[in-house]
Write a structure and sequence with these properties.
Blueprint lengths: L2 H22 L7 H19 L11 H24 L7 H10 L7 H28 L6 H11 L7 H12 L11 H11 L2 H6 L3 H32 L6 H28 L3 E2 L12 E2 L6 E6 L18 E2 L19 E6 L4 E6 L8 E6 L4 E3 L10 E4 L1 E2 L5 E2 L1 E7 L8 E3 L3 E2 L6 E11 L2 E10 L10 E2 L18 E3 L6 E4 L1 E3 L4 E11 L2 E10 L13 E3 L12 E2 L16 E2 L5 E4 L1 E2 L2 H4 L4 E2 L1 E3 L17 E10 L6 E8 L30
Parallel strand pairs: 13-16, 19-22, 24-26, 29-31
Antiparallel strand pairs: 1-31, 2-29, 3-12, 4-5, 5-12, 6-7, 6-9, 7-8, 10-11, 13-18, 14-21, 15-16, 16-17, 19-26, 20-30, 21-22, 22-23, 25-30, 27-28, 30-31
Helix pairs in contact: 1-5, 1-10, 2-3, 2-10, 3-5, 3-10, 4-5, 5-7, 5-8, 5-10, 6-10, 7-10, 8-10, 10-11
This protein binds 2-acetamido-2-deoxy-beta-D-glucopyranose (3 copies).
One 2-acetamido-2-deoxy-beta-D-glucopyranose binds next to loops.
C-alpha cells in the first residue's frame, strides 16, 4: 500500500472511531437508530408540552416559568446523556489534527481531503454537543444569558454554527452540484476501496462494513444536531424571544430532507460495495499462519530393482507409473532412507548418479536437495547439508541391464502422511440464536477442519461478542471414525478441492459450513438460516445447505486453477494475490521438481482466522451472509488455500422516513421514524 493510502486509512480509522465506540454500547443502551427514534420522540413530546401558549411575556408568573425552564433542561439532560453514551471516542479527533499537520508535505488525494474535512466537521458538532452537556449539568449555577447565548448560537445563521456545519457535512455526502467533483464521500470511499485488495488486508473489514459504519457516524451526528437545534428553539421560546413554531418546523423539514438524501446515497454506495473479506500474506509466515498437507505426492528416489517382485532391472524408470517397494536390494541407498510405504507413482529417469542431501528425520521432507552428475539440481543446493550428503550411483548388472535410480512420487501410507479433511459440520448454535461471525481452516493432529466463530444475534443486525466454536479433534485411524463419513483422505485420484464463493439468499444469515464429497472433489458448502431483522430471531427449522453442485459432467464444467512450477509459497518474496474465481477447483500436488525436489504438498493451507474487526475497540461482532474457499498465489508459487467470508448486506435496511409533520395536535402520538430501518 502506498504511503498515501496508508494515510487515508489512518484518517478513516480515526473518523470511524466515533461510531465504533457507539457500537460498544449497543447492548447496554441503544444503537444509533434507536437513539434517533428516541430523540425524535422526545423532541415531539417536548414541543407538545412547551409549545402551548405560554404567557411568560407578562413576567408575572415566575414559578411557572422556572418550572418550565427546569423541565426543558431536564429533558435536554436526558437526551444529551444518551448521546454522550454513544460518543466516547471523541478524543481520537486530536490524532486527526496531529495527523493532518504531519501530512501536509505530500499532495493529499481528494478522498483524503474530504475525509479530513468530514472529521473536522464531525468534531465541531461533537464539541458544541459537549458544551451543551456541560451547561445542562451546571444549569443551577449558570446565568440565564449564558444558556440563551448558547441556544442562539445553535440556531445561528453563521457559517460556523451548527446548522451550517450540518449542511456542510451533508454537502460532503450529497454534493449539491452534479459536476465532475460531485461524487459523494461514500462513493469516493467505495471507489477507492475497490482499487486495491490490500485495504481489506489492513483493515480486516469489508468495504461494505466500512461504508456502513461511516454512514452510521454521519447519521449519529445528524441526530445530535437535530436535538440541539430543537431544544434551542424551545429555550428561546420560553425565554420569550419569539414564537419559533415556523423555525422549528423548518428545522424538522430540513432534517428530513437531509437524512432522506443521505440514506439514498448510503444505499447506493452499499449496494455496490464489496462484501468480501479474507486474510492476506502475514508479515511473517509462522506455524500460526499456515499448515501443510504432507506426503501426498512426494519426490522419492528408488531403484528399479526394488520396484518389482522379481528384483530385475529389465525395464526403464518410465515403466513404473504405479508401483510399490518390494525389497531393499543389497542394502543400497534404500537402506539409508525411509521407505515409501504407500504407492510409488510416475517414475522418471533423470541421471544415473547423484548426491543426495537427506532432510532431518523430524522433517516432513525426505531430501533437502539432489544434485545429479549431469548438473541438474532438484531443490536448493546452496545450503550446506547438515546431515551429510550421500552418493547414490546406479549400477550395471553382468546381464548388461542398468539398475537405474528413478525419481518417483510417493503417496505415502496414511500413517506417515497428513492428508485428511474433516467432513463434519462446523455450526453455530442456532438453537440459542447464534450465528457465524468468522471462520478459519485449522489443522488438529493430522486432520484439517473448518472452524467457525459464533455470536448471539440481536436486534437490527447486531451480533454480540464473537467466540470460537471448539473443534473436536479425531484420529482417522481410530475405530468408529470412517473414511467418507467423518473425513476424506486426499489421494492421487481424489485430490481436487472446489473453489466456490457462496452467499445466502436475502433474509438469511450464515450459520455453518462443511466439506462434502461430490465425485472425486472435496466440496465446500454453507448453511444459511432465515432471520427477522427487526427482532433478531433465527428460524432454525428453516435452515438450508447451499452449494454450487457443478460437476465434471455438466456442460459448463468447473475450470481448474493451474499452478506453474510451484515452489513452496513461504519462499516467495513477492506478495501473492487471489487467483481463483467462483466455480473453479484446484488439485493438491507436489511442489516443483527443480525448485523443491517435489518434497512439499501445495498449495499450503492458510489457517489465519477470518473474523471481521467489528470496530477498533468494541466487543461486538459482525453479521455474515456467505463464505468461500479461494486460492491465493502467483507464478512460481504453490500459494495458499484460504477461506473468505461475505459480510451481511445492510443496504436494504437503510431507509429514511420523514419525521411527523407537526406537533400542534395534542392527541397526535405519531412515532418519530428513525432515519434507518
Ligand atoms: C396567563 O397567565 C394568567 C395568570 O396565570 C392566566 O390567568 C391566563 O389565563 C394566562 N393566559 C393564557 C393565554 O394562558
Ligand atoms: C405562535 O404559535 C402558535 C402555536 O403554538 C400559533 O398558533 C400562533 O399563530 C403563533 N403566533 C405567531 C405570531 O406566529
Ligand atoms: C419480524 O418480527 C416483527 C415483530 O415480531 C413482526 O412484526 C414482523 O412481521 C416480522 N417480520 C417478518 C418478515 O417476519
Amino acid at each position: 500500500m502506498s504511503v498515501q493510502r496508508v494515510r487515508t486509512f489512518r484518517v478513516l480509522l480515526v473518523v470511524l472511531a466515533f461510531v465504533n465506540t457507539s457500537r460498544a454500547l449497543v447492548d447496554e443502551v441503544v444503537d444509533v437508530l434507536r437513539l434517533g427514534k428516541e430523540i425524535g420522540e422526545e423532541v415531539i413530546s417536548s414541543w407538545d408540552v412547551f409549545g402551548k401558549p405560554f404567557n411568560a411575556t407578562g413576567g408575572v408568573d415566575i414559578p411557572v416559568f422556572r418550572r418550565r425552564e427546569r423541565e426543558i433542561l431536564a429533558r435536554l439532560a436526558l437526551v444529551s446523556r444518551s448521546i454522550e453514551k454513544l460518543e466516547l471516542g471523541i478524543n481520537k479527533i486530536g490524532e486527526v489534527t496531529y495527523f493532518l499537520a504531519k501530512t501536509r508535505e505530500n499532495k493529499p488525494t481528494r478522498l483524503e481531503l474530504r475525509m479530513n474535512e468530514m472529521s473536522d466537521l464531525l468534531n465541531r458538532v461533537a464539541s458544541s454537543n459537549r458544551l451543551m452537556r456541560e451547561y445542562v449539568g451546571l444549569q443551577e449555577e449558570l446565568e440565564r444569558s449564558t444558556l440563551l447565548d448558547f441556544a442562539e448560537g445553535c440556531v445561528s445563521h453563521d457559517h460556523g454554527a451548527l446548522p451550517g456545519l450540518l449542511e456542510r457535512i451533508h454537502a460532503l455526502v450529497v454534493p449539491p452540484h452534479k459536476n465532475l467533483l460531485g461524487r459523494g464521500i461514500l462513493q469516493l470511499l467505495n471507489d477507492d476501496l475497490e482499487e486495491e485488495d490490500s485495504d481489506v488486508c489492513v483493515l480486516q473489514m469489508s468495504p461494505h462494513q466500512l461504508i456502513y459504519d461511516m454512514y452510521n457516524t454521519i447519521a449519529l451526528t445528524e441526530i445530535k444536531g437535530y436535538a440541539m437545534m430543537q431544544f434551542s428553539w424551545m429555550l428561546l421560546r420560553i425565554y420569550g424571544r419569539g414564537n419559533f413554531t415556523q423555525e422549528a418546523s423548518l428545522t424538522r423539514q430540513r432534517y428530513a430532507e437531509r437524512t432522506g438524501q443521505t440514506a439514498t446515497a448510503a444505499r447506493a454506495a452499499l449496494s455496490r460495495a464489496n462484501r468480501k473479506l479474507y486474510r492476506c500474506d502475514p508479515q511473517e509466515y509462522t506455524k500460526d499462519t499456515y499448515a501443510e498437507v504432507t506426503r501426498l505426492l512426494q519426490g522419492y528416489v528408488e531403484n528399479e530393482v526394488d520396484m518389482n517382485s522379481d528384483g530385475t532391472c529389465k525395464e526403464n524408470c518410465a515403466f513404473y507409473t504405479l508401483a510399490e517397494r518390494h525389497d531393499c536390494y543389497k542394502e543400497q541407498f534404500c537402506a539409508k532412507q525411509a521407505a515409501c510405504n504407500g504407492r510409488i507413482i510416475d517414475c522418471q529417469y533423470i541421471d544415473s548418479d547423484m548426491w543426495v542431501c537427506p532432510a532431518s528425520p523430524k522433517s516432513q521432507r525426505r531430501y533437502e536437495w539432489i544434485q545429479y552428475e549431469n548438473g541438474r539440481t532438484l531443490g536448493k543446493a546452496d545450503s550446506s547439508c547438515r546431515q551429510g550428503t550421500t552418493k547414490v550411483d546406479s549400477w550395471w548388472r553382468w546381464t548388461l541391464t542398468h539398475c537405474s535410480y528413478c525419481f518417483c512420487l510417493c503417496e505415502d501410507s496414511e500413517i506417515e502422511s497428513e492428508r485428511f479433511f474433516s467432513l463434519r459440520e462446523a455450526l453455530a448454535d442456532i438453537d440459542n440464536n447464534k450465528v457465524v461471525t468468522g471462520m478459519r481452516l485449522v489443522k488438529l493432529g493430522k486432520v484439517f477442519h473448518l472452524q467457525v466463530y459464533e455470536g448471539a444475534l440481536a436486534e437490527r443486525g447486531f451480533v454480540e461478542s464473537s467466540t470460537e466454536v471448539a473443534v473436536k479433534a479425531f484420529d482417522p485411524m481410530h475405530v468408529g471414525v470412517t473414511q467418507g463419513v467423518d473425513y476424506h483422505t486426499l489421494t492421487y485420484e481424489r485430490r481436487a478441492i472446489d473453489l466456490d464463493e457462496l452467499d445466502a439468499p436475502a433474509g438469511h444469515v450464515l450459520t455453518g459450513a462443511r466439506f462434502r464429497m461430490i465425485g472425486a472433489h472435496l466440496h465446500f458448502e454453507i448453511r444459511a438460516t432465515p432471520f427477522n431483522y427487526t427482532t433478531g430471531r433465527l428460524a432454525p427449522e428453516k435452515s438450508q445447505w447451499i452449494s454450487n453442485d457443478n460437476t465434471e459432467g455438466s456442460h459448463m464444467p468447473r475450470t481448474r486453477v493451474k499452478l506453474y512450477k510451484p515452489d513452496i509459497p513461504t519462499r516467495k518474496q513477492t506478495t501473492l494475490h487471489i487467483n481463483s474465481q467462483h466455480d473453479q477447483y484446484i488439485e493438491f500436488t507436489h511442489s516443483d521438481f527443480d525448485a523443491d525436489a517435489a518434497q512439499s504438498t501445495v498449495p499450503f493451507i492458510d489457517i489465519q482466522p477470518v473474523v471481521p474487526t467489528k470496530a477498533l475497540n468494541t466487543k461486538g461482532a459482525s453479521l455474515l451472509s456467505g463464505a468461500g474457499i479461494y486460492h491465493r498465489g502467483g507464478r512460481g508459487s504453490g500459494g495458499f488455500l484460504g477461506v473468505k467470508i461475505l459480510t451481511y448486506d445492510y443496504s436494504k435496511h437503510v431507509k429514511a422516513e420523514p419525521p411527523p409533520s407537526e406537533f400542534v395536535d395534542e392527541a397526535e402520538t405519531t412515532e418519530f421514524v428513525p432515519i434507518i430501518n
